[in-house]
Write a structure and sequence with these properties.
It is a single chain. Strand 7, helix 6 and strand 8 form a beta-alpha-beta unit. Helix content is 35%, strand content 28%. A 6-stranded mixed β-sheet has the order 6-7-8-3-9-10, sandwiched between helices. It has a 4-stranded antiparallel β-sheet with strand order 2-1-4-5. Strands 12-13-11-14 form a 4-stranded antiparallel β-sheet, with no helix packed on it. It has 10 helices and 14 strands. Helix 3 runs parallel beside helix 5. The protein folds into 2 domains: 218 residues, Rossmann fold; 67 residues, Alpha-Beta Plaits, CATH 3.30.70.1560. The chain binds adenosine-5'-triphosphate and magnesium ion. Magnesium ion binds next to helix 1.
């Protein structure tokens, strides 16, 4: 199946000469949830804004549902719902009117039942007659989501949807996103919460300094992360690693010995290592294990990117 969104060589240099996107290639499949991770200033919002037509690309092409955003903007934009990072809603308008107006902007025919369903699914129905200024921050963010869903989009962009949203509501929002996906909506979200990407996404993309560093199925990524570290605090720091332990993936730093092993392998080698440690006369006073995580991958990718940049300069 053709991807619902196809981004090729997308480049954005802002008017001040700053290049926020350096030729990004990304295909998004219909019905998937893609999480974009990246530090502040990585280019996530720029990428989303370019696809949604809020920022004009300086290079590359984007199609949404086969419509080129440069030549068939209206048709492309109609397929998209956007929840922007910044809360921007008409302060004195009432909630229901705000959402109704958004639907109207897309030329969709009136459908009060749809608006009611959307507001209810976001726990906003009891606030429908309140003005937006009368809402809490988290509620305002949910109004943005209601607006984005008002015209029944095929693709939903969520730019940090859960920033400033409390834990319970965050869970509700995840449930809502899953429900939308079940209805066939494709979802692209950015987040700074790695556990949110872990929880929600089918695929994870990591972006830094305007470059997409990785796009991978989450399950595959998590499997490749199936490495664990066993850290042993030794009673005494040995001068060197005994010859009998050379076959293990071990790192010795002072009195700390770290063994890295694969949790998905049939045998972890821990039992054998313990026996060999005892035979070598090494005693330990404490031990702990640590699972590598998406956060480690994310941080090491971003660090590597930093190092490469510095080396190139
Ligand atoms: N209008 C603009 N003019 C010049 N530079 C801009 C403009 N908008 C964004 N930038 C720059 O582009 C880079 C990417 O910004 P962007 O907002 O896309 O980052 P982000 O990944 O969304 O970050 P965050 O996680 O903080 O939201 C930043 O260095 C930013 O300063
Ligand atoms: Mg942003």
């Amino acid at each position: 199946m053709a991807p619902i969104i196809s981004i090729k060589g997308l480049q954005k240099t802002y008017d001040d000469g700053f290049t926020a996107l350096h030729g990004v290639d990304l295909d998004i499949e219909e019905g998937e949830i893609l999480a974009l991770l990246g530090p502040n200033g990585a280019g996530k919002t720029t990428l989303i804004s370019a696809v949604c037509g809020l920022v004009t690309p300086t290079g590359g092409t984007v199609t949404v549902g086969g419509h080129d955003i440069a030549t068939s903007f209206r048709a492309a934009r109609e397929m998209i719902g956007l929840v922007p990072q910044e809360v921007a809603i008409e302060p004195f308008e009432k909630v229901l009117n705000t959402v109704r107006f958004s639907r109207g902007l897309f030329g969709k025919k009136k459908d009060e039942a749809h608006l009611e369903k959307v507001l209810k699914s976001l726990s906003l129905w009891d606030k429908k007659d309140n003005r937006n200024t009368e809402l809490s921050g988290g509620m305002k963010r949910r109004v943005l989501i209601a607006k984005a869903l008002s015209h029944e989009p095929h693709v939903l962009f969520l730019d940090e949807p859960t920033a400033g949203v409390d834990v319970n509501l965050r869970k509700d929002m995840w449930a809502l996103v899953r429900e939308l996906r079940a209805q066939g909506v494709t979802i692209i979200l950015t987040t700074h919460y790695i556990e949110e990407a872990e929880e929600m996404a089918d695929r994870i993309g990591v972006i830094d300094k305007g470059r997409l560093l990785l796009v991978e199925e989450k399950d595959k990524l998590m499997k490749s992360l199936g490495r664990k570290e066993l850290v042993l605090e030794l009673a005494e720091a040995p001068d060197a690693l005994p010859e009998s332990l050379k076959g293990y993936d071990l790192e010795l730093e002072g009195d700390r010995l770290t063994y890295t092993f694969d949790t998905t392998a049939g045998s972890t080698g821990v039992t054998r290592l313990m026996a060999d440690l005892a035979n070598a006369g090494l005693k330990f006073t404490d031990l702990s294990t640590r699972q590598s995580s998406l956060e480690d991958v994310f941080l090491s990718l971003v660090e590597e990117n930093q190092d490469q940049k510095e080396a190139a300069q």
